[in-house]
Amino acid sequence: MSDGHRGNPSTAARAVALTARFEALPGARGAGAGASGPVALVRAPGRVNLIGEHTDYNEGLVLPAAIDREVWIAFAPWDRPEVELTSAVFGDTRSFSFKGLSPETRGTKSWIDYVAATAWSMRDAGLPVRGFRGVIDSTVPIGSGLSSSAALEMASSWALAVPGAPRPDAGAMAAIAQRGENRYVGVNCGIMDQFASAAGRAGHALLIDCRINQFKTAPMPAGLSLVVCETGSSRKLEASAYNTRRSECELGVKLIAEREPGVKALRDIDEAMLERNRDRLPEVVARRCEHVVREDARVMATVAALADGDLEALGQLFAASHASLRDLYEVSSAELDAMVDIAVAVPGVVASRMTGAGFGGCTVSLVKHGAEEALRDAVLAQYQKRTGLEPRVYIVAAVDGAGGVKQGA
Ligand code: ADP
Ligand code: MG
After folding, report:
1. Of 121, 220, 383, 402, which residue is most buried, by most CB within 10 angstroms?
2. 193 catalytic residue (yes or no)
3. Exposed / middle / buried, residue 312 (Cβ in 10 Å: 0-12, 13-18, 19+)
4. Pocket test for ligand 1, best of 75, 86, 142, 234 (most atoms within 8 A of CB)
5. Centroid of ligand 1 to alpha carbon of 369 (angstroms)
6. pLDDT in tens, 52-67
7. How far apart, in whole angstroms, are the C-alpha atoms of residue 207 and residue 364?
8. Pairing mode, strands 82-87 and 132-138
9. What are residue 146's phi and psi, to 5 degrees?
């Protein structure tokens, strides 16, 4: 059981409130509901990626942190092969049965699909699951790029798991949830989001090697805060542009592999190899590959800079990553660029860049303790004037990954 909630003063109150909500469901534990025993609680955090963007699906490196914006589920197991969940965020109740679950028959096109996807994928991997009735609540902003979907999946994986049954490690569990989102929900995401939500460590970022699904923890330097700024801009283009970027990377690998034996992913390509094969690549494909190859190197350099507390290097690495995503990978936006511009001009802001897939969503900044409010003030004063959009600023902390908070029966 994770204890990542410890020290968060709102946790106990959240647990009580969510449990009360569960108890208030009509017939929460009546004979008709079939659920019995004490209410169990599970939680799973959202995540923010410090650096390593569009590298996960290229078998590369990423450096996310799980953050204290979380999805919680209060539930009671029952002996039916079914899940019934009420979302406090959406205000509706949805259900699905384990019987006949398959990507071919998936069906509601609603939020419950993320839970059903996790159940399908766990069963498909040979893991036992149990039915339950519950309530879900969340402080992860939805659709902002902080991975509310992965948090929902990882929280679901804990609620669905049969207590005492062997549980795969965080990387393997993340791969199961990712496969559910890919195959069942139909979203072609990489593994970073689920992995960060599953494996987070309080006060640390995670260096994840997406080739082997293994991670190491990287301590956040004392004296720095993590601040996430939401641009409020729509990510309408995202799915198709994301898929195009993935195909461009695949084409780069295919063309380079014709001349370089053993190349299976952009992970296998370094800058020298890219340069000697550049003439084989369409210009746009070469630029996409250049971003990914150099971004992997920046991730390793960031881990070293965090360990050394080298603030200047952190600033340069974040700036280089942002420029590369803007100019080479072309996934930034005027709003993301404006947000970074505003942040880096604030004294005490050490590093700032767009985070997540791009086209909108959030920026991530490393900020000296005490300068968080100055960043918030600058964003609130300038961003809307520049873009016409309403920003949100979240000062977040790195927390432990998903787990049970309170056991039921
Ligand atoms: P992101 O992961 O960046 O927040 P996505 O579009 O990938 O955005 O996932 C958002 C979806 O996840 C929502 O539309 C909803 O279906 C589901 N979801 C997230 N949080 C909740 C919640 N608290 N209750 C119900 N569904 C949720
Ligand atoms: Mg998502």
Report:
1. 402
2. yes
3. exposed
4. 142
5. 31
6. 999 999 999 999 999 9
7. 17
8. parallel
9. -100, 15
- The rounded distance, in Å, linking the Cα atoms of 235 and 357 is 9
For 314-345, the pLDDT digits (tens) are 999 999 999 999 999 999 999 999 999 999 99
How far apart (Å, rounded) are the C-alpha atoms in residues 334 and 233? 10
Q: What is the atom index within ligand 1 of the atom nearest the CA of 141? A: 4
Instruction: Find out whether 354 and 229 touch, Cβ atoms under 8 Å.
Output: no
CA distance linking residue 152 with residue 88, whole number of Å = 13
- In angstroms, the Cα distances linking 365 to 1, 59, 139 are 31, 25, 20
Task: Find all residues with CB under 8 Å of 370, minimum gap 6, and list them.
Answer: 348
**d(CA 150, ligand 2 centre) in Å:** 6
| Ligand 1 in reach of 152 Cβ (< 6 A) | yes
Q: Is 204 helix (H, G, I), strand (E, B) or coil?
A: strand
* CA dist., res. 371 & res. 103, Å (int): 48
363: left (phi over 0), alpha (psi -120 to 50) or beta: beta
56, 137, 193, 296: which one is catalytic?
Answer: 193
Residue 277, ligand 1, Cβ within 6 A:
no
pLDDT digits (tens, 9 = 90+) for 161-202: 999 999 999 999 999 999 999 999 998 889 999 999 999 999
Q: Helices marked H in 53-185 — which ranges?
A: 112-124, 148-160, 170-179
Cα 15 to Cα 50: distance, rounded to the nearest angstrom? 29
Alpha helices in 87-214 (DSSP H): 112-124, 148-160, 170-179, 192-199
Which residues on adjacent β-strands are paired with residue 216? 207
- Long-range contact pairs involving 253-257 (C-beta distance under 8 Å, separation at least 24): 255/280, 255/281, 255/285, 256/280, 256/281, 256/289
- Residue 338: which residues within 8 A CB-CB, separation 6 or more? 383, 386, 387
Structural domains of the chain in order of their starting residue, each with its CATH number = 11-220 (3.30.230.10), 224-396 (3.30.70.890)
